[in-house]
Design brief:
The structure holds 2 protein chains of 2 kinds.
Chain A: H1 5-45, H2 49-64, H3 67-80, H4 87-111, H5 116-124, H6 129-144, H7 146-160, H8 171-182, H9 185-218
Helix pairs in contact in A: 1-4, 1-7, 1-8, 1-9, 3-4, 4-7, 5-6, 7-9, 8-9
Chain B: H1 12-44, H2 49-64, H3 67-77, H4 87-113, H5 116-124, H6 129-159, H7 171-182, H8 185-238
Helix pairs in contact in B: 1-2, 1-4, 1-7, 2-4, 3-4, 4-6, 5-6, 6-8, 7-8
């Protein structure tokens, strides 16, 4: 046995190629999570008692159960109720749903930091509710939750590795396929660990740059 | 499509066995991971650039790689050092390794949040660094540690579902077995999700109790202040 570095280097190009799948899915998931999370936050802010009670149960469910189980539910249960999704679509919807809840929770935290006087002033000026959301609240809210969103993006990227379990050919599944013919699983796993490490470090670093830009813009 | 919990009648023992193993694995990984996390946090606080660099590398590496890949690296890596362990033990170790990075950050942040003067005064009156940490710093940060550690423990318990991919017979693995036998995904995953939910609630409740009992330590601190008050008033009476 013994660790073979040249073998690890030889399979890296294939793993990097497969990383395109993870990145593509992660981008789609983040966009969905952001859009749905914003919508959910607005619905919750309407304070309709029954709706909020239902949302609270859903949030508790998403936070209390493993992401892997949620992926299995999308993959095994949805077809049984007539929604036959491809593994990719099922996986993306499961992670996006999960991420939506966490985005909405952090937006709710951000809402508390927005000065009530601004809303009162906008109402006094006669701005309609949708304009208050779009022009006053959301632009500030998004800036405030940039750090959280960056962190969420790295979590989503890590989550896409779980899709290999439901047969999506991502970095991990490609690594497993390579290992099953070469019998060198350790090197291939180290290779895929490196791929994820680089993706997430790039996200964190660019996040820090974006954060300082936004901090400057806020002044 | 109809919901029929009766399908699961024969499989409850299997699911409960899985849930019990999930709980055991989580508690074992909590203990192992916390010990490792405290060690990493203490090393990170040693002056000089090297300890910070090494522990930073440890923490960032583990936090930026998906747990499922950490698991496979450990699973396939241990045989390289001729270590052969049962899958459950491998999975618990990987889970502890993963959690230790987060616990280390929690402990480090809590220590840094305490005014430096606390540690420095303890050193100034002649306590050794270990004594200063144990008798002065640790009692004060205990309470602040509970909420973030609970969050991380819940996350870790949920991540333990991934151990199913290396055939650890925990709850998720058993749910796939039952799903394969019954072809009743709705019932199976509804049951399993509820069990995870319940375990999460148990952990959250345990943490609330812990917080309360650590709060009692804090109250003890208040009574010490009362003793100080008595002395001060004694002095005041004498004048």
């Amino acid at each position: 046995m013994g660790f073979k570095l040249d073998y690890l280097l030889s399979i890296l190009p294939r793993l990097i190629g497969a990383a395109a799948v993870n990145i593509r899915l992660a981008v789609i998931i983040m966009l969905l999570a952001l859009a749905l999370g914003t919508a959910l936050t607005i619905v919750r802010s309407l304070k309709i008692v029954y709706v909020n009670a239902c949302i609270a149960v859903v949030i508790s469910f998403v936070r209390g159960t493993p992401l892997l189980i949620q992926i299995f539910i999308a993959y095994y249960v949805l077809p049984a109720v007539g929604l036959d999704l491809s593994p990719e679509v099922a996986g993306v919807s499961a992670i996006a749903f999960n991420s939506m809840v966490f985005v909405s929770e952090s937006m709710r935290g951000g809402l508390a930091t927005i000065d009530a006087g601004q809303i009162e002033a906008s109402t006094a000026l006669g701005l309609p509710p949708h304009a208050i959301w779009l022009k006053v609240v959301l632009p500030q809210l998004f800036r405030r939750i940039v750090p959280v969103l960056i962190n969420e993006a790295t979590i989503v990227v890590k989550g896409t590795a779980l899709l290999s379990v439901i047969t999506v050919v991502d970095v991990l599944r490609t690594a497993q396929q390579i290992a099953s013919s070469s019998y060198r699983p350790f090197e291939t796993m180290i290779g895929s660990a490196l791929v994820f490490l680089v993706i997430n470090l790039v996200i964190s670093l660019s996040g820090r740059v974006a954060e300082s830009r936004f901090a400057a813009a806020r002044v | 499509m109809h919901f029929d919990p009766a399908v699961l009648v024969d499989y409850w023992p299997l699911l409960l066995q899985g849930a019990w193993l999930t709980l055991q694995v989580s508690v074992a990984a909590l203990v192992m991971g916390y010990v490792a996390g405290i060690a990493v946090a203490l090393i990170a606080l040693v002056p000089g650039w090297l300890p910070g660099l090494v522990t930073g590398f440890y923490v960032e590496t583990l936090r930026n790689i998906p747990f499922i890949i950490i698991l496979f690296v450990v699973y396939y890596g241990l045989p390289f050092w001729r270590i052969r362990l049962p899958a459950t033990l491998v999975g618990t170790t990987a889970l502890a390794l993963f959690a230790s990075a987060y616990y280390a950050e929690i402990v480090r942040a809590a220590i840094l949040a305490l005014p430096r003067g606390q540690f420095e005064s303890a050193r100034a009156i002649g306590m050794s660094p270990a004594n200063a940490m144990w008798h002065v710093v640790a009692p004060q940060i205990l309470r602040a540690l509970v909420p973030p550690s609970t969050n991380m423990t819940l996350t870790m318990m949920k991540e333990s579902a991934v151990l199913s991919s290396i055939t650890v017979p925990e709850l998720t693995y058993q749910s796939l077995v039952v799903q394969g036998n019954t072809f009743a995904p709705f019932e199976v995953f509804a049951a399993v999700a509820s069990i995870y939910w319940l375990i999460a609630a148990v952990i959250a409740e345990a943490s609330r109790r812990l917080e309360r009992s650590v709060g009692a330590v804090q109250a003890d601190g208040d009574s010490r202040n009362r003793i100080a008050d008595r002395y001060l008033s004694l002095v005041a009476r004498r004048t």
